[in-house]
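Reopening: structure tokens for the manganese (II) ion complex, inputs below.
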Amino acid sequence: MSSEKPFILVSNDDGIYSNGIKALAEVAAEFGEVMIVAPDRQQSAVGHAVTIETPLRANATKVAGKFDGLAVNGTPADCVKLAHDQLLKGRKPDLVLSGVNHGSNAGINILYSGTVSAATEGTVLGYPSIAVSCTDYDESADLTGTMEAARRVIKFVLDNKPPKGVTFNVNAPSGDYKGIKWARMADSRYVEEYEARKDPFNRPYYWLTGKFELLDDSNDADIYLLNQGYAAVTPIQYDLTDYSLLKDIAEKEL
Ligand code: MN
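Re-run output (same inputs, fresh job):
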């Protein structure tokens, strides 16, 4: 860490008024100066969506009564892009944090997660970035262990400049945890079960009630470790190329 205080941008997908973002801002403040730019409402599972057809506005607010915040009527990725391009007025964050999300972002959840996408957008823009989630969906979940996991990974990322293109995805159980381990993303999926209903005009509508299916129980996978009571940290990348397959098929003609 340099002698100058790091400047830390904090975002999330549960909205700027969630408990999780307050917890993460508290941890961030132990390391440096905090600025919060986050959605003005719940934006879970919007993935990496960006707003293109409506104007974005950023309204000043205070988070936990002490952190400067800007509430944006957009997605998590919008928040980080807008912060970088306009709202930080040319200041470059030393770190982008997203979370604490209320709910797991392990396994396939990574793909749907607005929390992870805010951090990934930070990575795309060239900043070291960390997404932090607690497996407990309850807004009043005990985030003590998740905050400690975040503290450790923030320290690691500030001390060891991570390679370009990598985002750190942190998940922890509520309450205390057994330990913190490096992990890979568990193979998993949702068995998409929509409930078909009828509205008062007898038109059908559908409600997503998908069940989570774990396809991978190896002991280095994030969900396995979380189920054992550990916090899990997965380095992820936005370059989705399958390099091993590309190497093999590059010799084949199209
Ligand atoms: Mn969320």
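The domain at 7-238 is CATH 3.40.1210.10 (Stationary-phase Survival Protein Sure Homolog; Chain: A,). The mean pLDDT is 96. Marking as resolved unless the reporter disagrees.
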